[in-house]
Design brief:
With 339 residues, this protein is of the alpha/beta class. It has two domains: 9-153 and 278-309, Rossmann fold, CATH 3.40.50; 155-277 and 311-338, Rossmann fold. Helices cover 43% and strands 19% of the residues. The chain has helices spanning 9-26, 50-66, 89-98, 109-118, 155-169, 186-201, 218-227, 239-243, 245-254, 264-268, 279-294, 316-322, 328-333; strands at residues 40-46, 75-81, 103-106, 124-129, 148-152, 175-182, 205-212, 232-234, 260-261, 273-277, 310-315, 336-338. It has a five-stranded parallel β-sheet, sandwiched between helices. The protein starts with 8 loop residues before the first helix and ends with a strand. Residues 1-20, 22-35 and 184-188 have low confidence and may be disordered.
Amino acid sequence: MKVDCSQRPGIRRSIFTFAVSALLFAFCLPAQAQQPGKVARIGILDPSTAYGSAILWEAFRQQLHKLAWVEGQNITIDYRFAEQKDERLRDLAIELVGRKVDLIVVPDTPSTLAATKASIRIPVVMTNSADPVGAGLVASLARPGGNVTGLSSLSPELSTKRLEIVRDAVPKLARVGLLRPTPSGSRPSMQVKEIRAAAAALKLKLEEIDIQIIPKKLNGAFEDAKQKQVDAIIMPADRALFAERKRIVELAGNYRLPAIYFQKEFVDVGGLMSYGADYDDLYRRAATYVDKILKGAKPADLPVEQPRKFEFVINLKAAKQIGITIPQSVLYRADKVIK
């Protein structure tokens, strides 16, 4: 795994810690089997990359530690990353089941579906599924039933709010580019429908632009956006886009396109604006579900929770780079302004 040392020290330490932990515990140190008492085994099934998800899983691990679950003592963690290839999720899920994990932690709908198809017995904890009821993962938020519980990210509903913020932040906004990951699955398409409806209600022209989540091909989507003369860009919350956040932010700056993102980590690497749930908080709360289940609670009895914390972040350095001025009325609404 390559680590980008240009990131700030805190992130470098988190990624380094994560990388070491992933390598050690994914292959199971022999010494762990000699620990006295039962050692719980947690499986993590992620459609993204280890590098792209490092920050979020670090928050999860830290919260586990606060709850007295320590790797190498009373838990082991098996990481499985699909490297942005959803077709690999099924085999990776089966692999985790074969490892006899006590539960599986998943970040989104595709990975949850893969885990539940691999086993209807092993508990599954979601960190941020967009619409678990609509996707048929749980019977209801209050009474999930089955072997799945965890947290929902409210992604479709938040897409409308992001579009409203872009309208208020970008003067004379008329045409918005929607970067749509391809191939689009159930998760992005649900959000795309929400954005389409919001654009129509706000009387904005929406240009849908396919974006291939391959570093060498990301540039093509921004070329397309520029040719279509969009005034700003928006995108659905998507794990693959999150993994490539640094390159996406660089391209938005190079093409001088105002963009709003779904997680603050985009702004952390130089993006203009973000609005969404606090994903660090969602991952920490996912650890509390793991704690309860390992202590005997049943997933069917644990209600699915929604985000409690939301963040609106603006980066004035990025605004200056692309030559726009964010209205003072919008700045007042931000939770954090980077100057």
